[in-house]
């Protein structure tokens, strides 16, 4: 990973929750947790550890893998995560659920960071406001950790202080509304205390730490996503407009530059930075797993305008042609949006960055909101937004390295005509289909959209008999360790 200092604090604060005993120890070969945060340099190291915890291959990237398996974009009849496609048959004792604990390790590291950095004087930092930035970055990562727990598990334990005693961590699940309130509070703190971009971070040819770290706009982008999930149209519109009008994240052209080296496109707001590392899978999601176990669903295939003969004739929509690829050593066609062919060589699959949030999402937010608020008055503006997105489907310089002999380029798809949409429902479907094409296989976007648009359909896709099945089971080992923790009722 490019967050090179995979560090001290991570090793010190892995959440076995035997904190009291641990803090009594006098380590021989490690820095004591009691004395680690003694100055600004240690605070920077600890913050790097927090980012590493969150972006570890067994944390964020695997949670979004499990979420995506449950969408109508992915077909997965076998393999390590196939159980998440069939929730009625999902066995908590067999399902890979370690990401719960990994997210709580992230949260524990954040909580300790916040408590210890708060004790340091601003004068310890250069510039002095750097102390508040570090605190805001911590709040941002904690907000994201709880956001992905909220999406995946719904009701989870809410822990906002580093436990002084093992019993402090043995808490029951909090209601979803309490988790949501904490996410909002953390993101609000980040939005109010972070600059446009933190100037002390580097932005070189290998790593854009500026895009790989928290910013005011990244916090606001997640706030906008949450407001949309709650159908809080006006708040979501205000936030989306604020980010768009900042002028800091113009549309990337060509579209494929968002997902190809050197990454960190103009429209990327927050992007996981990956590079060669000792680990074989790196960030995890788009490594070997995609291609062996993950395939395009027929439904996902149906929403694109495809070449007349895939792999033989010129493409139409770069968003399909770039992402529909034969796996280099298995017979399946994988949903590959992040990995150019070179990255399958020499274990390089961990190099591909992941984009967590980008400006196109804010434009699509706006299109949906304008339609819901006043279709007739906003129809022309909505279609203009959709056509901005669609216009990038044509890419004359695209070379399809996955197939031999395919003519270069994609010809593009037709722009939309406002006169073709007579009703709000027709426009609603056009917006939803375009958003699906634009963000297929990215983050948890499709899942949260389906959850708010049509839970019954999502239950059908995941073979869920109750809405509780739309959340993951609690890892059984966690219930054994914590007597106050209860299983998701769908899996009892």
Condensed summary:
The chain has helices spanning 8-12, 19-24, 40-55, 60-69, 99-118, 130-153, 176-193, 209-212, 216-229, 233-245, 289-292, 298-302, 318-321, 359-390, 424-439, 445-453, 455-461, 476-481; strands at 74-75, 268-272, 295-296, 324-326, 333-335, 354-358. Helix 6 (130-153) runs antiparallel to helix 7 and helix 14 packs across helix 15. 48% of the residues are buried.
Describe this structure in words.
The protein is mainly alpha-helical. The protein is about 45% helix and about 5% strand. It contains 18 helices and six strands. Strands 1-3 form a two-stranded antiparallel sheet. Strands 2-6 form a two-stranded antiparallel sheet. A hairpin with a 6-residue loop joins β4 and β5. The longest helix is centred in the last third of the chain and has 32 residues.
Layout of strands and helices, then pairs:
Blueprint (H helix, E strand, L loop, with lengths): L7 H5 L6 H6 L15 H16 L4 H10 L4 E2 L23 H20 L11 H24 L22 H18 L15 H4 L3 H14 L3 H13 L22 E5 L16 H4 L2 E2 L1 H5 L15 H4 L2 E3 L6 E3 L18 E5 H32 L33 H16 L5 H9 L1 H7 L14 H6 L11
Antiparallel strand pairs: 1-3, 2-6, 4-5
Helix pairs in contact: 3-5, 3-6, 4-6, 5-6, 6-7, 7-9, 9-10, 9-14, 10-14, 14-15
Quaternary structure of the protein: single chain
Major sheet description: 2 strands, antiparallel
Class by alpha and beta content: mainly alpha
* Number of E-state strands: 6
Strand order of the largest sheet: 1-3
Contiguous low-pLDDT stretches (5 residues minimum) are 1-31, 278-282, 287-291
**Number of helical stretches of at least 4 residues:** 18
Percent of residues in beta strands: under 5%
Residues in helices, as a percent range:
40-55%
What is the rounded Rg? 23 Å
Order of helices and strands: HHHHEHHHHHHEHEHHEEEHHHHH
- End-to-end C-alpha gap: 38 Å
